[in-house]
Design brief:
- The protein folds into two domains: 115 residues, Tyrosine recombinase, N-terminal domain (DNA polymerase, domain 1, Orthogonal Bundle), CATH 1.10.150.130; 175 residues, Intergrase catalytic core (hpI Integrase, Chain A, Orthogonal Bundle).
- The chain is mostly helical.
- The chain is 52% helix and 4% strand.
- Strands 1-2-3 form a three-stranded antiparallel beta sheet, with no helix packed on it.
Length: 324
C-alpha cells in the first residue's frame, strides 16, 4: 500500500522493512496520525531487532523474522523489556498493543492465520497512588492570597481553589460551569463530566460563599460561563491550571494541582467517615473500583495514625506505669 505524505500534512516515518511500511501505510489510510504511525513502526522494529539479533551499523532495518514470530517469542521479548531493560509496565503494554494491531493486520491480509500477540497477557498496569495533600496543606493553600494588579481576579482565583476542593470536580468540569448550572442558596451545581454525563454536585458553605463573592465582581459579559477571564470570555483549561499552580507556588505547596485537590477532596471525605459509594457519586466515577483507591489511601492514613498513637509499640511503654 502506498503512503501519501502530502495527504497527511504531517511529517512521517517510513520504515525500511516493507511489511512494516505497508502496515503503517494502512494506519495512515485509516486516519491514524503520524505520531501513532511512527510509534507503532518503531515498536515493531524494536521487536524485529530482538528476533534478528545484532546487525551491522548502517545496515537496512529489515526484520523478516517479524512475520513468523510466535507467542513464545513475544513472551521472551516482554521479559527482555521488563527484566533487562527495566521498562515500566505502561511502556510494555504499549509495545504489546502495537504487536497486537500489527498481527491483526497481518492476519487480515493473509500473511498469517493467527495473532500470536493475543496469546500473551498484558502485564498488569501499575497502580499509581493519587497525590493527596494533608488537610493542613489544603488549609494553607486556601488561605493563600495571590497579589493581582486587578483585585477582582484574586477574588475569582480564590473561588476557583475553594470550588476545586469543596466539590472535587475536575478542571474541565469547572471550566464548563455556566451561570445557570449553579444554585448557590441551596449550595449545589450541575457539572458535565466524562462521556458528557451530567451530575449534581453539592458545595461546601465556604465554596458557595467564595462563588457569591466572585459574582459580585464578575465582569459584565454575554458569555454565560461562570468563571471568566479578565476580558469576559470563558476561562480555559490551561488558564485554570496556571491559576492553581500560581496559588500552589505562592503557598509553598508546590505539589498541589487541580487534580490533587480532587484526590484530596475524596480522601479527606473517606478519612472523615464518608462511604465509598457516596464519594463515587460525587466524583462521577462509573465504576466503584476507580474510587476504591481513595479507600486504600484512607486505610494507609489510619494505619500510620494507629502506629503513632498506640502505646504498645513505643520504646517507653510501661515506664513509670503503676499497677493496680
Amino acid at each position: 500500500m502506498a503512503i501519501h505524505p502530502e495527504r497527511t500534512g504531517e511529517a512521517y516515518y517510513l520504515p525500511d522493512d516493507p511489511l512494516i511500511a505497508e502496515f503503517v501505510g494502512d494506519l495512515l489510510a485509516r486516519g491514524r496520525g503520524a505520531r501513532t504511525q511512527e510509534a507503532y513502526a518503531r515498536d515493531l522494529e524494536d521487536f524485529g531487532r530482538f528476533l534478528e539479533g545484532p546487525r551491522e551499523d548502517g545496515a537496512p532495518n529489515l526484520v523478516p523474522k517479524l512475520r513468523a514470530a510466535s507467542a513464545s517469542d513475544i513472551r521472551r521479548y516482554v521479559l527482555e523489556l521488563m527484566q533487562r531493560r527495566r521498562y515500566r509496565v505502561v511502556a510494555v503494554r504499549r509495545k504489546l498493543s502495537a504487536l497486537r494491531t500489527f498481527y491483526k493486520y497481518a492476519r487480515r491480509e493473509n500473511y498469517r492465520t493467527d495473532n500470536p500477540a493475543l496469546d500473551v497477557d498484558l502485564p498488569k498496569a501499575e497502580q499509581r497512588k493519587p497525590k493527596v495533600l494533608r488537610e493542613g496543606e489544603v488549609a494553607k493553600l486556601l488561605e493563600t492570597r495571590i497579589e493581582r494588579a486587578d483585585p477582582k481576579l484574586a477574588v475569582r482565583d480564590r473561588a476557583i481553589a475553594e470550588v476545586l476542593y469543596g466539590s472535587g470536580i475536575r478542571r474541565a468540569e469547572l471550566a464548563g460551569i455556566d451561570l445557570d448550572d449553579v444554585d448557590l442558596p441551596n449550595r449545589v451545581m450541575a457539572v458535565t463530566g466524562k462521556g458528557n454525563k451530567r451530575r449534581a454536585v453539592p458545595l461546601t458553605q465556604t465554596a458557595a460563599d467564595a462563588m457569591i463573592a466572585y459574582l459580585a465582581v464578575r465582569p459584565a459579559s454575554s458569555d454565560r460561563a461562570f468563571f471568566l477571564t479578565q476580558n469576559g470570555s470563558r476561562l480555559g483549561l490551561r488558564q485554570v491550571w496556571v491559576i492553581m499552580k500560581s496559588i500552589a507556588h505562592t503557598s509553598g505547596i508546590d505539589r498541589a494541582t487541580t487534580h490533587s485537590m480532587r484526590h484530596s477532596f475524596a480522601t479527606h471525605l473517606i478519612e472523615n467517615g464518608a462511604d465509598v459509594s457516596t464519594v463515587q457519586k460525587l466524583l462521577g466515577h462509573v465504576n466503584v473500583s476507580t474510587t476504591m483507591v481513595y479507600l486504600d489511601q484512607s486505610i494507609e492514613h489510619l494505619r500510620k495514625t494507629f502506629e503513632r498513637s498506640h502505646p504498645r509499640d513505643r520504646d517507653d511503654f510501661g515506664s513509670g506505669r503503676k499497677d493496680g
